[in-house]
Design brief:
- The structure is a single chain.
- Helices cover 54% and strands 7% of the residues.
- It is mainly α.
- The protein has three domains: 61 residues, Homeodomain-like (Arc Repressor Mutant, subunit A); 62 residues, Arc Repressor Mutant, subunit A, CATH 1.10.10; 149 residues, no CATH class.
- It has a three-stranded antiparallel β-sheet with strand order 1-2-3.
- The longest helix has 40 residues.
- The chain is elongated and about 55 Å long.
- The chain binds a DNA duplex (21 and 21 nucleotides) through helix 4 and helix 7.
- Keywords: DNA-binding, Nucleus, Repeat, Transcription, Transcription regulation.
- One of its GO terms (cellular component) is nucleus.
DNA sequence: AATTACATCAACCGCAAAACG
DNA sequence: GCGTTTTGCGGTTGATGTAAT
């Protein structure tokens, strides 16, 4: 490598962008689209429109500042929480984190982490790299086991998150292409085949920590001794809330699911979306309910589908996803159970403490 | 009011991977 | 298949704003 930076090589302008430059770049993108920076940079195009910036600088300005779908300003509590949680799982993989935080750029998240969140965690005696209390850094045998298992969890979840991020990115690509090339335009037909068709305007949110906690908080996983698990013939009613979500998410990458129970609000919501046939048509399922006692309702492992919302979701799955191989579900479930293993309590405690300190800090702590 | 220290964030840099010719 | 160029990412810098002294 060791190439001369394009800005220097082409004697392009550097430094802060002026409103006039922004206007010119926006005008260019409006006319040509934002898909290909290859066609925009430094050669004749930028100069031609009076923008003496290299393509790299243009792309950066667009992706981090000018893009219309960027949310600017202060991060709210939920976003802070998500950043901390995702960083605990993914480390400094800002692009993946940004893909899971709608409307925020990786640069913005990275800045916010470095200037704000990292310091807060340090002040609280929590190592911002490991996300563990510093006094436990040298830890015990139990800690080693916890770390090993957490690492395993992180790898597993990380792979899934990256896949999710790829989907989001591809969906944005489709969205951009759609803007640049409306259906009746001369958009190359090739692109339509290359890029999987996803819903441009809305992808379901996936809160990974909630998913994690759902797995590790579940008292509803079927027991190993459950005979019906072996035959692979029983229907969805045999599965519990958490294993259903977990398995559907893995078996059907196109089906995104979020299911949350809010203890304090005594409510729950379930969200799912799946692609319909060969059309650009996504079908969504969304349902929420109020309960007298959510905890009791969801901890009833024996008959979770008495809940009407679950009944509705089950029908949604059968109607829109169709037949699938239950034996895969079974083997995956075995893996889930296996990975939970003996460290179940330790992991649950870890994530609970993560959430607790964020929640506690948000309400009155001098640090937050 | 002036100076200094600290915080913020847009923008740059270098690198690696992907795409191109 | 290979060299070159472009793209995307994470780390870092430095200009600017704000608070403290």
């Amino acid at each position: 490598m060791g190439k001369t930076p394009c800005c220097e090589r082409l004697r392009m302008k550097k430094g802060p962008w002026t409103p006039e430059e922004d206007r010119k770049l926006l005008a260019y993108i409006k006319e040509h689209g934002s898909g290909s920076w290859r066609s925009l940079p430094a050669k004749a195009d930028c100069v031609h429109i009076g923008l003496e910036r290299c393509g790299k600088s243009c792309r950066l300005r667009w992706t981090n500042y000018l893009r219309p779908d960027i949310k600017r300003g202060k991060f709210d509590q939920q976003e802070e929480k998500s950043i901390i949680q995702l960083h605990a799982l993914l480390g400094n993989r800002w692009s993946v984190i940004a893909a899971l935080l709608p409307k925020r750029t990786d640069n913005e998240i990275k800045n916010y982490w470095n200037t704000n969140l990292k310091k807060r965690l340090t002040k609280m005696g929590i190592d911002p790299v490991t996300h563990k209390p510093k006094r436990n850094a040298l830890g015990s045998a139990g800690h080693a086991r916890e770390t090993a298992n957490l690492s395993h969890m992180a790898q597993w979840e990380s792979a899934r998150l990256e896949a999710e991020a790829r989907l989001v990115r591809r969906s944005k690509l489709v969205s951009n292409s759609y803007q640049s090339h409306p259906p009746n335009s001369s958009r190359p037909a090739q692109l339509l085949h290359q890029v999987p068709v996803l819903s441009p305007p809305k992808l379901p949110c996936l809160d990974v920590i909630k998913a994690w906690r759902a797995v590790f908080s579940s008292s509803a996983l079927p027991s190993h001794g459950d005979d019906s698990r072996a035959n692979g013939t029983r229907n969805l009613d045999g599965f519990t809330r958490n294993s259903l979500v977990d398995n559907l998410d893995h078996l059907f990458p196109g089906l995104s699911i979020e299911m949350i129970s809010h203890k304090d609000k005594s409510s729950a919501c379930l969200y799912g979306a799946t692609k319909q046939g060969v059309q650009n048509d996504w079908k969504c399922f969304e349902n929420s309910m109020e309960f007298q006692d959510t905890e009791a309702a969801f901890s009833d492992a024996k008959d979770p589908f008495k809940l009407p919302m679950m009944e509705g979701f089950k029908n949604f799955v059968f109607d829109n996803v169709g037949a699938y191989d239950l034996s895969n579900t079974m083997s995956h479930l075995d893996n889930v159970i296996g990975s939970c293993g003996d460290d179940f309590e330790e992991n649950r405690t870890y994530w609970d403490s993560m959430l607790n300190f964020v929640n506690a800090s948000a309400s009155g702590s001098p640090v937050f």
